[in-house]
UniProtKB/TrEMBL annotation:
Native organism: Methylobacterium phyllostachyos
Keyword check for Membrane: yes
Protein family according to the UniProt entry: Belongs to the binding-protein-dependent transport system permease family.
Protein name from the UniProt record: Osmoprotectant transport system permease protein
Main location group: membrane
Keywords carried by this UniProt record: Membrane, Transmembrane, Transmembrane helix, Transport
Pfam families: BPD_transp_1
Localisation per UniProt entry: Cell membrane
Domain of life: Bacteria
Length: 407
């Protein structure tokens, strides 16, 4: 009858089970590697235009870069992509993603210098779809590696500071001066700093106003179910109003206040300008702040409250010494949500004369100048990302302190 079936099917000494091979691959890293390969080999890396609004010519990596630079970029980014497919240590994953980011930054500068004729002030060179996709994927890969390392709050802030310093030094070096977005910055450098300060001011002040109103309102309404439902229901309705509609609805009443109330115009209250932007942004921030306050207070353990009452604490003492400190992580989470949200929404202030980075976004749209749009959009993304990192670190610290307070 021959050998038994089990004997005939036993693998030889050189056979390798497919499961063992697949076990060495990282699923997410494999997706990252595939997208990196697609972006650099199948999509154009840069786009060249004769001026800021003319149609451009898309160029692949080997056409946009000098030969040596193209080999370096494709080789090193390809090696980084190969590392990402494997189950390597998180530090190796972080290094692979960071290396790809560095090479892509260098590639943009090299391509701009290579494609811009000497002395030409009108031509424009910008990253195209392949560069943007590769940059986003490399950033996600680096972020994935950093997250797997589980860095503490201090490490997160140090990493953010290092990235900020390196980016600032690179911008000041002039390496990217031939890129179109830097040429747009050169043409708006006299107003750029002012608009950034206005943008940050609108975001921070609106979150402050929302916290000063939303936190006390939530504390007062929380113990009364009907009042709590009414507060959160009203704020939920307010949140559903489209941002453009809310900005427009505020123009007429604020214009009336500016005309009719003595001293209001001197404070900057008018139908257009920062006032409607500040009111609208504050209104949008109220629901997350109030909901986070209610959720944080609800999560305080009952035995902790009972113990505080048992040692003779008054209601005010329990609130400020027990409830709010233990609810602080949830509160900061709400603040994080609204700050990142309002940094993005503050762009719309440019439509109502409120200033900020939205000025460049809407100027670019009206002029069909994509790089001018990016001059407003990219700093907005950077501000939101940096704010998220800082508040994530603050949340981690507050959770540690909350755990110390818990029994």
């Amino acid at each position: 009858m021959g050998e038994p079936f089990a004997t005939r099917m036993r693998p030889g000494p050189d056979a390798r089970p497919a499961g063992r091979i697949l076990a060495g691959l990282d699923p997410m890293g494999t997706v990252f590697a595939g997208l990196l390969s697609l972006s650099l080999l199948a999509l154009p890396l840069m786009i060249e235009r004769p001026n800021r609004i003319a149609a451009g010519t898309s160029l692949m990596a080997w056409s946009a870069l000098p030969a040596a630079a193209a080999l370096a970029v494709l080789g090193i980014v390809g090696f980084a992509a190969a590392l990402l497919t494997l189950r390597v240590a998180p530090s190796v994953r972080l290094a692979a993603g960071a290396s790809a980011l560095l090479l892509l930054g260098l590639a943009a500068g090299w391509a701009a210098d290579h494609l811009t004729p000497p002395g030409d002030r009108y031509s424009r060179v910008s990253p195209d779809a392949g560069w943007w996709l590769a940059f986003v994927v490399a950033g996600l890969a680096a972020g994935d590696g950093l997250a797997r390392l589980r860095p503490g709050p201090g490490t997160r802030i140090a990493a953010l500071a290092a990235v900020t310093v390196l980016a600032g030094l690179a911008l000041r070096s002039g390496f990217w001066d031939n890129l179109s977005i830097m040429r747009e910055y050169a043409g708006h450098s006299d107003t750029f700093g002012r608009e950034v300060r206005i943008h940050i001011g609108l975001a921070l002040s609106s979150v402050t106003v929302a916290a000063l109103i939303g936190i006390p309102a939530a504390i007062l309404a929380r113990p009364v179910p009907a009042l709590r439902r009414t507060l959160l229901g009203f704020l939920n309705i307010l949140q559903t109003i489209p941002s453009m509609a809310l900005f427009g609805m505020l123009i007429a009443p604020l214009a009336w206040i500016g005309r009719s109330v003595p001293g209001a115009a001197e404070l900057g209250i008018a139908g257009i300008g920062p006032a409607p932007a500040l009111v609208a942004l504050s209104a949008y921030a109220l629901l997350p702040v109030a909901a986070a306050t209610v959720a944080g207070l609800d999560a305080v353990p009952g035995p902790v409250r009972d113990a505080a009452q048992g040692v003779g604490m008054t209601g005010r003492q329990r609130l400020f010494q027990v409830d709010l400190p233990l609810a602080l992580p949830a509160l900061l989470t709400g603040i994080r949500i609204v700050l990142v949200q309002n940094i993005g929404l503050a762009v719309i202030a440019g439509l109502v004369g409120g200033g900020g980075l939205g000025v460049f976004v809407f100027q670019g749209i009206s002029q069909n100048a994509g790089d001018l749009v990016l001059l407003g959009a990219l700093p907005t993304v950077a501000l939101a990302s940096g704010s998220a990192v800082l508040l994530d670190a603050a949340i981690a610290v507050s959770r540690g302190r909350g755990a110390e307070r818990a029994p």
